[in-house]
Each structure stands twice: as C-alpha cells, then as structure tokens.
C-alpha cells in the first residue's frame, strides 16, 4: 500500500521516501523545524522520593513527607516516583560477584524500586492514590483528574534492554533518570527530587565539612566542575541537554518541613539545575 504524496507534508514525504539514518532527514524533525511538541500534562509535577536518602530511613522520614504530599493534593497534581535505595545496592553487589550483566541488574533494581512504590501506595491508599506500572500510563491523565496523584516506580522499564555504562556494569539509567524521563515526555510543570540534603554541594556534605552549597547552576557549568559527588544521577544531566520540555530540575530537602510545598508552589528553594 502506498500513500499519495499529495496527502503528505514535505517532511512526511522525506520520512517516507528517505533513510531514517540520514542526518539531513533527521534534522528536519527537530523542534526548530517542526515547532514545539505538545505539552501533555503541563499542570502536573513529577516528585521523586529518594530511596536511600528518604525511604530507607523508615517512618520518621517517610510519614512527614507523605503528610505534606497529602496536604498539597487540593492544589497540585503529582506523579510520585520512588528510588530503589540500599536494597538495590546490595542486589547490585551480589550480582557483580556472580558475574551477572547490566541488563539483569536492571531487572533487579526495577523490582526494588517497585517494592518502595508499593509501600508508599499502601500508605497513601486511604486517600485514593493509585500505584501504576508502565502498562497503565495511558490511564495516568484519568488518575490525576480523579485523585490528583499517582505513585510509580522510578526505574525506567529498560530491564534487559538497559544499555551498558561507559565504565563498569551498574545500570546507568536508574530511578532519577526514569523519573526525569516522565517529566520530559509529558512536559510536566516541574521535576522535583526529594533528598536528605538541601540540594547540590561541591562535595558530599555528610563527609566534607567544607562542602559549599550551590543554589543554582547550569548543566554545562556543573559538568565543567567535574564533581566527584553529584546529588542526581549524571544520566539526568545528559538527558537535560537534549530535552525539549523539562529543561530544569529542583532538589529539595524532604527532611525539612515545608520545602516540598515551597517547591510545588514554584518558590526558590533547594538547588535549581537548568539546561542552557
């Protein structure tokens, strides 16, 4: 079956007749040529709850954060992602000792992140907030319209298809990256990471007293600093440089009451990292 050229745009004709590996053809699909993409969920906020930094701390850390999230339900739509934390690190350690490949470790990390998502879901169940898996994302707009929030696991569902990192075998795209990709694809209002620190520092403040807080920085500047410790996965920074929608992220301290609310309200709190 052939499509009449009269029914296709100039770009459509190039895609149908051309080679999708041709840089010239691919260049015609850029937003500078086609115009900006559709913002699917522009009023929603992706809020990622850290695994090791928050969930692994248990009730003392988790309950106040969930209370603050519930308080914000009348005013903000939230897509709540979860980290994997210490249990995933243990699984990675054992996997490395057994000689398992990156893709298998991606599967194990996914299930740990899913466990954390289910725990938050059960704690939020009385508020009608559902847990969704990737196959349920087509229903996401309905859940947000009805309940204002959903819980999902932050690990991107690459599983066996997780690409090998430049160095080592640990999956390079983990829960920070998976949560960010949701923000980018749906063009959400904000991407907020809830950690146990005020934001980005020049070093790990838990280990270095001289670490300096960085309230705002571009991805380009951050990469140039070549810090040993970065508060988010470096894969997020790479993705931000080619992003069409989610060009900034914010990191806040979930252990300090009110910071999540301030971030949802668009206030200047924590650290803002932006793409030039």
What distinguishing features does this structure have?
276 residues, alpha/beta, Carbamate kinase, seven-stranded mixed sheet, two-stranded antiparallel ribbon, 11 helices, globular
Return residue spans where pLDDT drops below 50 for at least 5 consecutive residues. none
- Number of discrete helical segments: 11
End-to-end separation in angstroms reads 45 Å
Give a count of the beta strands, DSSP E runs of length 2 or more. 9
Radius of gyration: 20 Å
**Which range does the strand content fall in?**
5-15%
CATH fold-level label: Carbamate kinase
CATH architecture name: 3-Layer(aba) Sandwich
CATH superfamily: Acetylglutamate kinase-like
Largest sheet data: 7 strands, mixed
Strand arrangement, major sheet: 3-2-1-4-8-9-7
Broad CATH class? Alpha Beta
Q: What string, H for helix and E for strand, traces the elements in order?
A: HHHEHEHHHEHEEEEHHEHE
Structural class: alpha/beta
What general outline do the C-alpha atoms trace?
A: globular
Mean pLDDT reading: 93
Helix fraction, binned, reads 25-40%
Tell me the count of domains: 1
